[in-house]
Prior knowledge:
Elements: E1 3-15, E2 19-21, E3 42-44, H1 47-60, E4 64-70, H2 73-83, E5 92-95, E6 105-110, E7 114-118, E8 124-125, E9 128-132, E10 138-146, E11 152-161, H3 169-191, E12 201-206, H4 220-223, E13 243-245, E14 250-252, E15 255-259, H5 261-266, E16 273-274, E17 307-313
Parallel strand pairs: 1-4, 11-12
Antiparallel strand pairs: 1-17, 2-3, 4-6, 5-6, 7-10, 8-9, 10-11, 12-15, 13-14, 16-17
Helix pairs in contact: 1-2
Amino acid sequence: MSTTLRLATFNVENLFARWRFKEGVDPAAANTRGWVVEQTRFEELGVDDKAITGAAVREIRADVLALQEVENVDALKHFRAQALGGRVEYPYVAGVDGNDPRLIDVAVLSRLPITRIRSHQHLMDPGSPVAPLFSRDCLEVDVEVREGEAKSTTVTLFVNHFKSMMGGRPETRGKRLRQATKVKELVTGRFGSAAPGDHPFVVLGDLNDYLGPDGSSGIDGLVEWDQVENVVTRLPEADRWTHFFQGGDEYRQLDYLLPSASLAENSAGAKPEILRKGMPLRAARYTGPRFPGVGRDKPKASDHCPLVMELTVG
């Protein structure tokens, strides 16, 4: 007996729980008597963006959602309460404070039990031994998927947010290459080197690079590994973009769902979905409907699109 797992990845772009003083409040005098809970002196930042981000998350209806650019678990729980219907909708949360100096982490929201969490943020970069390898983390998360009354299968997620291309794609390629190589090593370390693709796992997240041309990508060794499948290639080529970069007028796939070969084979009839309704109006290639309130640049759900697919497990 098999079951369907609706799995998604979404870079939610600076999902912070941050505040600013309200107009007319003197910060120097605001705390002279200590914290007074009945006096609200702050306004939450990004409220309109978060509302649209929440609309996007609700629309994709994922059973399990891997997230990038989350400030911390508390910020994620606040977002869950404000925009997603609270714990009743997503009772399970996984996240560990990672390496990013801007405090943007990877995390997981799940309707299914999370039974194991492992961080790999401690790994050091062989190209720069005083620096961590993973820009944020490679968060390894086990999710229990029930196939019937007496049987369950563990699907392992490797949630990533690789080094950005800021500073130049060629100049930053080496870091992404080392990160991608290590993710493959983590997979084979968990499931063996002979045929890891026989096991149910998914590598997913914002890999911050696109394939080609001519070896210019730092991630092709991972994305084109024969133990996984880049399921976005099941879509027409013109429809594979998940991110818009205005500076170069570039529509690229930066976000990936890479199910193991066995999961991909079980799900041979399925195609991924890329939800663009939260993209800003400046992403003019997309001409479909948008969520109410989306602006030319802001507010928006994110500069990335959620990527979701139904995987057959078992």
